[in-house]
Fold this sequence. Notes:
4 helices, MetI-like_sf
Amino acid sequence: MDQNYFFPIQLSLIVSFSAALAVFFSGVLVGKLFTIKSFKGKIILETILMLPLVLPPSVIGYSLILIFGANSAIGQVFETRNRKYHPVHPLLQ
């Protein structure tokens, strides 16, 4: 079969595996930090980290569009660095 036929499947597997590894290791590190240390702002950081569990996916998606959209400050930085800005991944353009 054609190489382009399997590209979406391959990309999905790569992204999901990379995300699972990143979340696993960062979750273990943050969990260990929260159990060992007591620091100022710990409750605020815990609240921010728990927000994706209680907010609906549409609110999270809308927030990501606002943060990384072409009209936001972060989106404009991406646009100046990459002439062809792609909201999902700059290398896909």
